[in-house]
Structures are given as C-alpha cells and as structure tokens.
Design goal:
The protein is of the alpha+beta class. It has 2 domains: 59 residues, no CATH class; 63 residues, no CATH class. The protein is built from 2 helices and 6 strands, in the order H-E-E-E-E-E-E-H. Strands 1-6 form a two-stranded antiparallel ribbon. A two-stranded antiparallel ribbon has the order 2-3. A two-stranded antiparallel ribbon has the order 4-5. Strand 4 and strand 5 form a beta hairpin. The radius of gyration is 48 Å and the shape is rod-shaped. It starts with a helix and ends with a helix. Keywords: Membrane, Transmembrane, Transmembrane helix.
Length: 153
Amino acid sequence: MFKRKFMRAYIIILILFFASCTRTIYVPNTTTETVVETLRDTVVEISPDSSLLIALLECDSAGNVLIDRINELQAGKRLLPPQIDIKDNILTATAKVDSLSIYLTLKDRYRESATSQTIIVNKLTKFQRTCVWGFWVLVVLIGIYMIFKIRKR
C-alpha cells in the first residue's frame, strides 16, 4: 500500500518535472537569398570602318579610261580593299562590309541577401530565474502536500 502511494507520487512528480520550464530555445538565424534575372535586348555599336584606294587614271587614244598605277591601297579592320571595275568609261568600286550593329540578349543577375537575427530584449537576471524556479518547486511541494492531505481523510 505504501509502495503504491509512493509510486503514484513519484510518477506525478516526474510528470510535473517534464511539464516544467525548459531551457530557452533559440531560433536560428535565417538567411534568405533572392536572385532576380532580367533579360534585356541591346544593340552594340561597332566603330566605323573604311578602306582606301588612290589610283592614277589615264585615257588612251580611243578615249577609254585606264588605271595607270595604284598609288595607295589600304584595307580596314573588317573591310577588304574595294574591287574596282572600269566598263564603258564608268569606274565602279565595291566594298562589302558586315552590319555595323549587333543585336544581343543580355541576362542581368541581381543577388540580394537578407539575414534576420533574433534579439532578446528582456533577458531575465539570475535572481529572476531563481525566483521562477523556486516558485515552481513551491507549487510542486504544495501539490504533493495537498495530495497527501486529501488521501489521509
């Protein structure tokens, strides 16, 4: 009988201890990272280019134009020297070049990072924590005393 009452009281005390205050559980710092990708079309301008041909022209006895000699011939960075053609006393110089604008699709990536921290505003002092623990010990002792008083009647 005494063993049974002691066992019940022991179980009740254990339950009260498990239900009592626990240590402070700190929330871990959280870091959120946001990556924003933006696609945009753009035009890249290329610097102008040119080629040069300086030639000496002369007429023959029939009145046709002939190239006597080429004094200077320069090619550009992207432009080849012009192709020259003389037909029926008409001088034609042709030079081919690529487009001077390039259309590109660019991808801009912005990365934003935000960190949240938990700040304890009202931290209890050691005396206050001792008072809280003392209160709960007192409540448990009063509970045990009340249980024994009720059982004796």
